[in-house]
Amino acid sequence: MPSHTPTIEAFPYFNVVPLLLNANCLSLKPAFAVASEAKEKWGGKVRALVRGSGPDQVWPLLEDFFSLHKWVPTIDTCYGVEGVSGEPGCVRYCSGTRSSADGSEDVFTDWAMEKLLVTDPINKSFTYEIVDCNNVGFKSLAATMKLTEVRDAEEEDGCGMSWYFTVNQIEGWTEKDLTEFYSAALRVMAERIQAALSSKGQ
């Protein structure tokens, strides 16, 4: 169990993520559909703000389901392995490299595959799940990203990014630590999106 709040660098694969894919991966059932592995689930919501841009500007960046590596620094690679990006049923492969914790020169690749379930361009939201083909220890993950307009006298106008998740318990973590990790990761993601839109003058 972590003795301190984990940072995004401490858990390389976000939203939970080898260059050679097992051909059987795509035929496997989603992990959360396997009843034999049903356990008490964790769940939560984290939120971040993209300042200066609204949902209409942010949505085109996120609806490209195969572009997660552009927004999450710990993901080196993200590409489609099935379907068309942004269409329900498409599957993406995500991976990130990390150094060995023992100080050696060994480098490890954490990877996972995720399937887009539902997308709603009108309400700016989409839902996806991790499939049972990963090496990061997830037995299930279902998540929804939703964008909302933010106009608040106490908060700078912009786009609110809300990420809801449910996941089976993960060994070595607590629900609080995992939620704090996801919160930190979403803030970094929002900052990257904000920078990209600012550079385009949006």
Automatic annotation (TrEMBL):
InterPro entries noted in UniProt: LFS, Polyketide_cyclase/dehydratase, START-like_dom_sf
Coiled-coil annotated spans: none
Recorded superkingdom: Eukaryota
GO MF annotations in UniProt: protein phosphatase inhibitor activity
Alphabetical list of Pfam families matching this protein: Polyketide_cyc2
Protein name: Lachrymatory-factor synthase
